[in-house]
Amino acid sequence: MPKVRQANDINELSSIYIQWIEDLGEVKPCKKCSQNSKKEYYDKNFDLSWTQDEKYFNKELSEQLKYIEENRFQGKHYYVDQSKSGSIKVINEPEYKNHDFPKESYRFLNLFKYWNIVEYFFPYKYMTDQPWNEVLSEMIPKFQQVTNVTEYHLAMLELVTKTNDTHAYFLTEYTTDYFGKKWAPFIYKIIDDRAVIMGFYSDSLARLNNLHIGDVITHVNEKNISSVISETYKYIPASNETSKLTYTHNILFNSNSDSIIIQIVRNDVQELKSVATYDFKEFNFSRPIEDKWKILDRNIGYVNTAYISGKDNVSVINKLKDCEAIIFDFRNGTMANLGIANQLSKEKRVFAKYLIPDTTYPGKYYWEEGTISGKKNNYNGKVIVLVNQNTLSQAEFIVMSIQAAGGNVTTIGSQTAGADGNVSRYDFLGGFKTQISGIGIYYPDGTPSQRTGVKIDIEIHPTIQGIREGRDEVLEAALLYIKNTLE
Questions:
Q1: Residue 415 near residue 245 (C-beta atoms within 8 A)
Q2: Does 176 map to a domain?
Q3: Of 359, 369, 472, 470, whose CA–CA distance to 414 is shortest?
Q4: Which burial class, exposed, middle or buried, applies to 273 when counting CB atoms under 10 A from its CB (0-12, 13-18, 19+)?
Q5: Looking at 42, 74, 106, which one is the last position of a domain?
Q6: Would you call 231 helix, strand, or coil by DSSP?
Q7: Which residues does 168 contact at the CB level (< 8 Å), separation at least 6?
Q8: Which is it for the CA torsion 387, 187, 256, 273, positive or negative?
Q9: How large is the C-alpha radius of gyration of the chain?
Q10: Domain end marker among 74, 98, 129
Q11: Phi, psi of 466 (to 5 degrees)
Q12: From the CB of residue 306, how many other CB atoms can be counted at a distance below 10 Å?
């Protein structure tokens, strides 16, 4: 970095880079690199045109960089490994302990490391709202100009957010302290720029604060909800608008004070009230344990996939095989695997295409197919799949497999999280954890599930009135659809 800063023109800069490259050792000729690969490549992420840009490099350096590309290393990499599923692991990196707020050169190293991981090994780089090259240009001065540890960690969080990936996260004690360590005791959903209380982390604390399900919150600490959300958007990693609103949950009503002031609407009457905030541990919160499956009226099977695992696939389908229809509810995620779809399909089917990073040619990706096997004694009735913003990752993946199982499958609900498949995990300098989607997941026709979410046949959104009445409008829609199609 000091040498680069002292360079006066392109030739001096190029000479520094040429010497640096030569100091790293000989790049041996690669005969295999020129051979045509049998892999079906996907090149939307691939762009090495910068190596030949005369605005930055002289001819000698550009030729050297082209030679490296054409003779790229083909053996076992020292810094990058790959899991069986195809996701990337960065290895043999120093720990960089005590780098909570490092000096400028290490802040740049941190930025460049993460930026290059996304540049070469993030399958959805081409989908980001902001072109990835522009992200680098924007973030360099931000990493340079931060003046304290909190600003630095917020810059890292902003960088992660620019992946537009619900799988991505970055959480440290400094970001937590910035947004507030104490929580309001309610669970909410954003509807029409307002927060509607849907439940509570603690019923007793909710009663103590006189909070009701269906209360509509329009303002917090004298700011309207939409403005608070817009102020924090750059710090919420998410694939789509639906997920961004969902993941305001640890920002919007958090505080380091003992209370927040909210303005609510209840029974068409506005009310300003002070609500106490708590350490999350005080809630002693856990989601209620529900039945894995049950039979509803009219002989309709219902499966809550949040509570079934791979070993339950066969037994659940067997218990519900005589039902006229089965509803699979993925609105709280899943622990299941492809075994469900195998039980529902009569034959082997391709349900997805995978995009795998190619470590022999960083920046390129190749296709693989995902299949379900099918069973002879499969279920023949109607299948309904329920989804919403909490249908994330594995849940989206299994939904896609069920959708491919046959013509009797109907998906009902609202946009899913849009972050399908597995993840690749990395460390920022100092050991601060982060992750991004590891491989690309697409429908067989090439339609992505990333960002947009899974395909939905009947779109249903909860309403404020429905929440107040304690109704499950999505399940109601599914039961009505089954009734209408079976009569």
A1: no
A2: no
A3: 472
A4: middle
A5: 74
A6: helix
A7: 160, 161, 237, 434, 435, 436, 437
A8: positive
A9: 26
A10: 74
A11: -65, -40
A12: 19
> Cα 41 vs. chain centroid, distance in angstroms?
24
Output the CA–CA distances (angstroms, integers) from residue 42 to 72, 77, 121, in the order listed: 19, 22, 13
Residue 98: other Cβ atoms inside 10 A: 9
For residue 303, the one-letter residue type is V
Range of the domain at 23: 1-74
Q: Give pTM, 2 decimals.
A: 0.95
In a domain, 158, yes or no: no
Q: Is 239 left (phi over 0), alpha (psi -120 to 50) or beta?
A: alpha
Q: Could you give the C-alpha distances from 295 to 114, 319, 342, in angstroms and in order?
A: 49, 10, 22
In 3-state terms, what secondary structure has residue 32? helix
Work out how many domains the chain is built from and give that number.
2
Asked if the structure places residue 26 within a domain, the reply is yes
Residue 367, Ramachandran bin (φ over 0: left; ψ between -120 and 50: alpha; else beta): beta
**Secondary structure of 348-379 in the HEC alphabet?**
CEEEEEEEEECCCCCCCEEEEEEEECCCCCCC
Q: List the structure tokens of 369.
A: 């197919």
User: Residue 330: which CATH number?
Assistant: 3.90.226.10
d(CA 403, CA 351): 8
Q: Strand ranges (DSSP E) for 380-442? A: 382-387, 409-413, 423-428, 432-437, 440-442
For 19, 22, 37, the CA distances from 71, given in Å and listed in that order, are: 19, 15, 15
Q: Is residue 57 exposed (0-12), middle (13-18) or buried (19+ Cβ within 10 Å)?
A: buried
Residue 420 is classified by DSSP as: B
**Euclidean distance between CA atoms 300 and 308, whole angstroms:** 18
Residue carrying structure tokens 């090495």: 48
Q: C-alpha 363: how far from its chain's center?
A: 21
Q: What is the pLDDT along the chain (487 residues), one digit of tens a residue?
A: 899 999 999 999 999 999 999 999 999 999 999 887 788 899 999 999 999 999 999 999 999 999 999 999 999 999 999 999 899 999 999 989 999 999 999 999 999 999 999 999 999 999 999 999 999 999 999 999 999 999 999 999 999 999 999 999 999 999 999 999 999 999 999 999 999 999 999 999 999 999 999 999 999 999 999 999 999 999 999 999 999 999 999 899 999 999 999 999 999 999 999 999 999 999 999 887 888 999 999 999 999 999 998 888 888 988 999 999 999 999 999 988 899 999 899 899 999 999 999 999 999 999 999 999 987 777 889 999 999 999 999 999 999 999 999 889 999 999 999 999 899 999 999 999 999 999 999 999 999 999 999 999 999 999 999 999 999 999 999 999 999 998 7
Residue 168 lies in a domain: no
Tokens linked to 17: 């880079």
Report the distance separating Cα 36 and Cα 27, nearest Å: 21
